[in-house]
Amino acid sequence: MAVIDPAKAGAQILPFYLAGDAGDSAVIRGRFASVGGPVTSILERHGYPDQVAALQAEALAIAACLSTFMKFDGVFTLQAKGNGYVKTLLADMTSDGALRGYAAFDDESEPQLGADMVAGMSASVPALLGSGYVAFTVDQGGENGRYQGIVELSGETLGDAAMAWFANSEQVDSHIVAAARKGESGWTASALMVQRVAADGGSAPAGDKAAQDDAWNTAEMLLRSVTREELVDPALAAEDLVFRLFNALRPHVAPAQAVMDQCRCSPEKVDAVLERMAPDELAGLVADSGMIEVTCEFCKTMRAIDPGLSRH
Ligand SMILES: [Zn+2]
């Protein structure tokens, strides 16, 4: 059994395996992302209304969870566009575990808070985003290093959208649930996912197909039985939840991956953007202070650049 650093308990992704040994010889692999720590600090900088914050928290947990299912070196992004109260929802994580995100919403049309904001255990996509789409992008840099899948916002939750993407593009049996809650000491935000190890990957576990179908059906049923309370309980350790929930499928866990609240903006990137702008565009950005003030949408860092030092 893996030992988890308690210091990372508020921000980690725990890989686990069901019905077989650890690794790809298992019939099912899973991840439990619990990212309350970084989600709390990210949301504190934005001051969103609670229902937007809850949706953003779930997006961050789902992005963190999904990203570790893929082998890549770069950035995984979840971006939703809607025609409802929330217009844009973005969450991304690097393969090193640097998580960030932001939401754009319509100040004028705040929906009524109510039970319909939560569909089962998660924030309601129809109530908050309306209709639109979600794009999932893996970007490894370079010309061929980008892959994107897009699905319509047709389900009740962001987890449903993620499952639709897996069903369409990856064609692998997957199930994911996510939940977030604001407590006295900050947010808890979790995403729990199981996925059947792909049969065409060359690494499909040998053995009885019927027994594997059985194991998958059991895993999906057990995942559906998880309660919102279990997912958002800050006192319930990730490993304890996995063993409690999937005990019948003999879980194995692997070392957890740390997740951090960390943006990728930099003065150099701001300079590069300004250099591409026309002089009159730049002039329009000069604030009362006489400086060009650029605020990162993700981390809210404000940078003041002297327009006289611009290379134009
Ligand atoms: Zn930033």
Q: Share of helix among residues?
A: 25-40%
How confident is the prediction overall: mean pLDDT? 87
How many strands appear in the DSSP assignment?
A: 16
Distance between the termini: 59 Å
Strand content: 25-35%
> Major sheet: size, sense and barrel closure?
6 strands, antiparallel
Poorly predicted residue ranges: 1-9
Q: Please, how many domains?
A: 2
Element-level helix/strand string: EEHHEEEEEHEEHEEHHHEEEHHEE
CATH topology descriptor of the largest domain: Hsp33 domain
Please name the fourth-level CATH homologous superfamily of the largest domain.
Hsp33 domain
| Small-molecule binders | zinc ion
> Over the alpha carbons, how many angstroms does the gyration radius reach?
21 Å
Please report the number of helical segments. Answer: 9
Describe the structure.
By secondary structure, this protein is of the alpha+beta class. The chain has two domains: 9-261, Hsp33 domain, CATH 3.55.30; 267-309, no CATH class. Helix content is 29%, strand content 30%. It has helices at 36-46, 50-67, 125-128, 158-170, 209-224, 228-231, 238-246, 267-275, 279-284; strands at 12-18, 28-34, 75-82, 86-94, 98-105, 118-119, 122-123, 132-139, 146-152, 174-183, 186-196, 252-253, 257-258, 260-261, 292-295, 302-305. The chain binds zinc ion. The site of zinc ion has 6 residues, from loops. Residues 263, 265, 296, 298-299, 301 line the site of zinc ion.
